[in-house]
Amino acid sequence: MVAFPQAHILDIVGPLEVLTGTKYFLPEGPEPYAVTLVASKTGPLPTTSGLSLTAHRAFADAATDTSPIDTLIVSGGHGTMAAIKDPELLDFVRQSASRSRRIVSICTGAMILAEIGLLDGKRASTHWWWCPILEQRYPAVAVDRDAIFVRDGNIWTSAGVTAGMDLALALVEMDFGHDIALQVARYNVMYMMRPGGQSQFSAHLVAQRADDPAINATLDYILANPGDPLTVTALAARAGLSERTFARRFKDNTEMTPAAYVETARVQAARVALETTTIGVEQVALQTGFQNAERMRRAFQRHLGVSATDYRERFRGSQLTPLIRDGPD
């Protein structure tokens, strides 16, 4: 794990907790992941939280090691813009990448990979706020503004903060299989294993954008009542606006059409029901406004790339049965 002053602490410890926690679900044997935190110097490393981490090795020392690296991870955070001007850091990442099986960036760590040309001609993701900056500074990079994480060849990039944990789960799944990854997710009390192609923007996050009181109230209503008839006509009447004015102001505030937002909110509500209840798929579809299971299946395919039935099997698949050795605290 490559870090730098004012890195986001969760960009570092979040993925590492996921990776190292895999040991609780594997039989006795070597640690599944041996972690080394590398920075400009050993010792305390200040992070954006005000807490310090301890770097195991300095770039100068670690660069003399020519042994293969399984996974090179580059963290992100507010210190990124200074980090991309640090020749020692850039040289270390460049040299280490050449001997790594796979290369990973968390959040704005994508800027560092882009700075040394590793993302040229590749798809990549980063925190939504930084996507326009990545696009502007590095036009050779195909920036995916929505994705939670992206894999292009042996290079993986993630969106911000907790998306790094989603990416780490995908690495665990690649290395040890789906069942182990799912158990690691549950052990970490993660909401679910999110597919990489899932949008960074949930319906609740979109709702937080709205400044218009009428639109804001409409968004709250949609989230609370996904099973209602949520046509433009009905929503415009509730907002006290003409349909044309409502549709225009809605898109101005959310960058989505009313129909697209309603579907997003319904998929979100259906996902929660599928994960947390045992009611049938058809009943979930009725409760969340899809009218029937086929419509819900098509919506899930558009948003998540899986059917509602497959989604339930994926996220409710196995029980948490850790093979604890020393045991977590």
UniProtKB/TrEMBL annotation:
InterPro entries tied to this protein: Class_I_gatase-like, DJ-1/PfpI, Homeodomain-like_sf, HTH_AraC, INH-QAR
A GO MF label: DNA-binding transcription factor activity
Record domain HTH araC/xylS-type: where: 216-314
PROSITE patterns, sorted: HTH_ARAC_FAMILY_2
The keyword Transcription regulation is annotated on this UniProt entry: yes
UniProt keyword annotations, A-Z: Transcription, Transcription regulation
PANTHER family per the UniProt record, alphabetical: ARAC-FAMILY TRANSCRIPTIONAL REGULATOR, HTH-TYPE TRANSCRIPTIONAL REGULATOR RV1931C
Name assigned to this protein: GlxA family transcriptional regulator
Organism: Meridianimarinicoccus aquatilis
